[in-house]
From TrEMBL:
Region (Disordered) residue spans: 1-21
Organism per entry: Streptomyces bangladeshensis
Domain Oxidoreductase molybdopterin-binding, residue spans: 81-227
The protein, known as: Oxidoreductase molybdopterin-binding domain-containing protein
Gene3D superfamilies, sorted: Oxidoreductase, molybdopterin-binding domain
Pfam families in the record: Oxidored_molyb
Length: 250
């Protein structure tokens, strides 16, 4: 699924058929640091996650996502590489069945009313990160500003990794716990966690919270996303989908 805790529980990495082998020293060192994350104090957790995120970006085997990480985020990507976006070159487009399509810069998104949510993050692969703060603009606010047309039924999300996509129904997208997120764990969302802007769908499995968000298109029907085309449930309520019985996150 999608990243995190793209980290994260969301995206799972599909190994390339002819990926470069990971050096023995790198692999052993990574395994040692992964095991260390299980027994060290929580203060070291973010540093370990950052290390694993950096290694995962150069790991064509997908082994990094299997390492122990002390209850933190796992790092996955479905693209061989992901370009970085800064405040200077980031744009989020909102188009499709709306009266006022437009693009947002990062500064414009930051200037809008912000909502803070603290929820557990649950990956469909089984790991959970409790009490994770996210902050951003309610997706419903952007939809209201765009003027959604009566024929609209759903949304399609695209990402600047060039590969990942996601979907929500219009009713799901209008929930107050669905954000276009700019901050995570009380800091700006970094690249490894899907920044500078990602989707956050609090009550659903983390693959719905698409990283590296670049486009929102309002559509007349649901178009299944990347992992949904590969067997995951389109409606991904935590504990009520994908054959899992996890405790709800909200």
């Amino acid at each position: 699924m999608n990243s995190e805790p793209s980290e994260e529980p969301e995206q799972r990495h599909e190994p390339e058929a002819a990926g470069r082998p990971v050096g023995r020293r790198v692999l052993l060192g990574t395994l040692g640091l992964g095991a260390l994350g299980v027994v060290t104090a929580p203060a070291l957790q973010r540093g370990l996650e950052g290390f694993l995120g950096g290694v995962a970006g150069k790991d064509p085997t997908g082994l990094t996502g299997l390492l122990p990480n002390g209850g933190g985020f796992r790092y996955y990507s479905v693209a061989a590489s992901v370009p970085h976006r800064t405040a200077a070159d980031y744009r989020l487009t909102l188009d499709g069945l709306v009266d006022h399509p437009r693009g947002y810069t990062l500064a414009e998104l930051r200037a809008l009313p912000q909502t803070r949510l603290v929820r557990d993050v649950q990956c469909v692969t089984g790991w959970r990160v409790p009490g994770t703060p996210f902050e951003g603009v309610r997706l419903s606010h952007l939809l209201d500003a765009a003027g959604v047309r009566p024929s609209a039924r759903a949304l399609r999300f695209t990402c600047f990794d060039g590969t990942y996509t996601e979907s929500l129904t219009l009713d799901q997208a209008r929930r107050p716990d669905v954000l276009v997120a700019l901050r995570m764990r009380d800091e700006d969302i970094g690249h490894d966690h899907g920044g500078p802007v990602r989707l956050y769908v609090a009550p659903m499995y983390f693959y719905k919270s698409a990283k590296w968000l670049s486009g929102i298109t309002v559509t007349d029907r649901v178009r299944p996303g990347y992992w949904e085309e590969r067997g995951y449930d389109v409606d991904a309520w935590v504990g009520r989908s994908n054959g899992r019985s996890d405790e709800p996150t909200s």
